[in-house]
Amino acid sequence: MLTGGAGYIGSHVIVALRESGREVVVLDDMSTGLRERVPADVPLVFGSVADKDLVVQTMMDHEVTGVIHLAAKKAVGESVERPLYYYQENVGGLLSLLEAVRIAEVEHFVYSSSAGVYGQPDHSPVLEDGPTVPLSPYGETKLVGEWLLADLAAVMPLSWCALRYFNVAGAGDPALADTSVGNLIPIVLRDDSEGRPATVFGDDYPTPDGTCIRDYIHVVDLAEAHVRAAELTEQARVGEIINVGTGTGSSVLEVLASLGTALGHEVAYEIGARRAGDPGALVASVDRATEVLGWRSRFDLDDMTSSAVTALADR
Ligand code: WQD
Fold first, then answer.
1. Is the pLDDT of residue 314 over 90?
2. Ligand 1, from 32, 135, 146, 183: best to mutate by most atoms within 8 Å of Cβ?
3. Torsion sign (Cα): 143, 136, 211, 186
């Protein structure tokens, strides 16, 4: 069972799961999901992860053996404005879902976590065992989710894996592209299409070109990591927390240059103020993903920007 399967990341996970020969049932409340992202021959249950009876029924009806849980709220700024809502949706939703997991005796669980749990790390690349000091209610809810899984697995047969996503970008298919405009690449593409310069949030960071460095990971690579994580939870009783990134950082200016190449024209930008809470550099250590999941990213920044540009042109 894939929660949030009608979302940007979820729809790519459906593709990867089916390519691996698995059957999938999607649970989505369609608050941000799109019907057309879910193939017609994949069962789609319209409902919330917090509707425990519906979740248990779905697990029984579809003989669910494992859950990949993506359904959650993910806007950092909104989480600062609405902390109760974020705890309700992300922590409350997971709590209810795990009660259903217990009732239906499902033993395998993959959880969508975030690099947001690290806050502003002193060192990059960041190791999974390093300090977790989230700077937003969003990041806190993701970290609490990891704790909850670890606590539950201590008292029931639950094999789980939490994937800490870095900066997800790109599209495997134009139809599955990110339609929200919440992150750097979609924001710059929107500004460019509207003839406005992009704003670079600060150029006085201690990085080679002064702009923030992030680890951008192609959504197709990320989706494949979920399949590997699902397999891992089935092969052994695990409780693993794993970064999902490329291990390579790109600065904001490098992203703009790559977008310029994909667009065929230079992207206009201006330098703005720093954004509160932005770490100068946040890059994943990918050793654990390689060792434990046997997974590595295949795509690079140009693949992400070009697929994002193609998807936008198709819309
Ligand atoms: C990327 C870089 C900005 C917009 C967030 C969450 C994280 C995870 C991924 C979900 C930064 C710069 C941005 C703009 C800019 N989310 N930027 N001008 O903040 O790295 O991570 O999304 O799990 O938890 O915190 O992503 O895309 O907002 O920013 O210069 O108009 O682009 O400063 O360096 P971020 P982002």
1. no
2. 183
3. positive
